[in-house]
Structures are given as structure tokens and as C-alpha cells.
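Researcher: Here's the sequence for the chain we discussed earlier.
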Amino acid sequence: EQLVESGGGLVQPGGSLKLSCAVSGFTFSGEWMHWVRQAPGKGLEWVSSIQTGNGMAVYPNSVEGRFTISADNAKNMVYLEMKALKPEDTALYYCARDQSGTRRGQGTQVIVSS
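Model: Thanks. This is the structure I predict for it:
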């Protein structure tokens, strides 16, 4: 199985980015898929989850209302749309098969800075 993230970059505070995760080697339809992140010098932090069967999404308070997770079952893609970004959102963002991030891709870097 392989998870390949893309879409990261440098963005100013208040800006937006949309991350993509291309999934291969398994079909996630009906499973939970997740995004986690790791800020410099910190551990993995759960960011969002989606039940790909019914679209139900959950978020921690830190990103609720600013981040939106979605999935395209036909394309085997998972997305994370991020708005109103803050400097504290700076991190390496991973797509993962589990909420702890044990089974994750290589990550895509997001830097929020003016």
C-alpha cells in the first residue's frame, strides 16, 4: 500500500491550501482515513478523519471550522482543505490509515509565515 501526499507549500497567515493524498495498493472505500501532522520538534498530532463510506468527518478543536477533509472513492484520493491558516499550523502533514499515524505516507510540508 502507498500513500502519497502533495500540495504543501509556503502560505501567509490567513491563507489557504489544499492537500491531496493519492492512495494505491488498497481501496479505502468504507474505511476511515485520516490526516495527521508533525510540527518541528513535536510529536504527531491528529488533524482530521473521514468515514469514506458515508462522508462523516471529525476534527479536533484546534482545526474545527478551518479544515475540511474529503474523499473521492472513485479516484482513491483523500483531500484536506485548509483555510485561515495560522503560524502554528506549520508542520509536515501526513495522510494515514490510522488515527495515530502509524501507517502514513512521506508527508507534505506546510509553512505558514509572513
